[in-house]
Amino acid sequence: MRPWSRSEDERAALAALEKAQRAHARDETVADLEAAGIQLDPDRTGSHRHGDVVHQHDHPHPHVQSGVGERPAIGIIGAGAVGTALGVALQRAGWPIAAVASRDAGRRERFARLVPGARVFAEAAALVDEAELIILCVPDDALPVVARELRLYSGQALIHTSGALGAEVLQPAMAAGTQVGAFHPLVAFADLERAVAALAGAAVAIEGDDQLAALLAGMAESLGAVPVRLLPGTKAAYHAAAMLSAGGFVALLDAIAELGRVAGLDEAGSLAIYGRLIEQTLGNARALGVAAALTGPMTRGDVGTLSAHLRALRAHAPGALGLYRAAGLREVALAEERGVLAPEPASVMRRLLASDL
Ligand SMILES: NC(=O)c1ccc[n+]([C@@H]2O[C@H](COP(=O)([O-])OP(=O)(O)OC[C@H]3O[C@@H](n4cnc5c(N)ncnc54)[C@H](OP(=O)(O)O)[C@@H]3O)[C@@H](O)[C@H]2O)c1
């Protein structure tokens, strides 16, 4: 971000200089192309509207700038699950959501309805003139692609919301005086209002230099979230843990429901009865620690029970075998570490769990 202490005069001078440099570079390029007989944009009129959507042809003016001490104008690229929920949550927390860019008309219309006042764009590049802080909420694989399409102005910051990738993936969009960062909320964005509510109390992993990080930390706190900074180079591990906590846990629930069906329970029934056990186990882990929360056959060396489980799984729920085995091996290791499982039953259990893999 720009230094917030920079005076209005300095910023106006810088903006004018940038504008002149860009215009010069653009005019030179256009002149070269026209000299070669190539007409770039026959209908070159700056921006135009199709319905509520603004289509932009070039960068005729520098980006918007907030006053000293004001919150920066925010632009959101990608009106998917995260982009829309963040737009709603940030606006409710008093952040100015200036614009959104989404290629999909339905998502644009929904965003405009949920976040009144935001301008809507079909192209990501067109949004750059409207915002100081641009939040890229596109799938991880699309981040470098979209970053290459953007040209930031000095004083702007571009951040993404990925938990797996570092901020360096945004480097292609950078120019002198720009910053990149990340703002990853540890929330499962399955439903808009549930996600907005879940932001309160959730961790948000922040990346960026000190000035940008301070702004992003303030943004997280204004949502009631808890900003965290990770050790350098650890984002993939942090995100793998998040995946196990959300998607991995859903996979476990799915396997539990599959076994519940064998016993005659429907999904709601399984969630009701095993859900209580899950909550109790989580409560025990919080109160006593993870290792101490382990219960079940592995803590007793109960080889007969383990064999019966494996037989039942092979016969009735083979789809759940892989998860059961992986979890079982981890439980054996935990029980041994805790000193409640002797080496002999531990090795028998390992053999049983590894068989037929
Ligand atoms: N879902 C979660 O629970 C969660 C949690 C934390 C962080 N995140 C992170 O947040 C980011 C967005 O995830 P999401 O769940 O919001 O994804 P999503 O619901 O699939 O939305 C992605 C948005 O990006 C746009 N988009 C898709 N491909 C694109 C491309 N090639 N170029 C430009 N735009 C493209 C989509 O289309 P339109 O342009 O047509 O709108 C859509 O609006 C990801 O980095 C993800 O890792 C997700």
Topology:
Layout: H1 8-35, E1 47-50, E2 53-56, E3 74-77, H2 81-92, E4 97-101, H3 105-114, E5 119-121, E6 133-136, H4 143-149, E7 157-160, E8 179-185, H5 192-199, E9 203-207, H6 210-222, E10 226-228, H7 235-262, H8 267-288, H9 297-300, H10 303-316, H11 321-338, H12 343-354
Parallel strand pairs: 2-5, 3-4, 3-6, 4-5, 6-7, 7-8, 9-10
Antiparallel strand pairs: 1-2, 8-9
The structure holds NADP nicotinamide-adenine-dinucleotide phosphate.
Walkthrough of the structure:
Strand 6 (133-136), helix 4 and strand 7 form a beta-alpha-beta unit. The chain has twelve helices and ten strands. It folds into two domains: 8-230, Rossmann fold (3-Layer(aba) Sandwich), CATH 3.40.50.720; 236-354. Strands 1-2-5-4-3-6-7-8-9-10 form a ten-stranded mixed beta sheet, covered by helices on one side. The chain has helices at residues 8-35, 81-92, 105-114, 143-149, 192-199, 210-222, 235-262, 267-288, 297-300, 303-316, 321-338, 343-354; strands spanning 47-50, 53-56, 74-77, 97-101, 119-121, 133-136, 157-160, 179-185, 203-207, 226-228. It is elongated. Bound molecules: NADP nicotinamide-adenine-dinucleotide phosphate. NADP nicotinamide-adenine-dinucleotide phosphate binds next to helix 2, helix 4 and strand 8. Residues 78-83, 102-104, 107, 137-140, 142, 145-146, 160-163, 184-185, 187-189 line the site of NADP nicotinamide-adenine-dinucleotide phosphate (NAP).
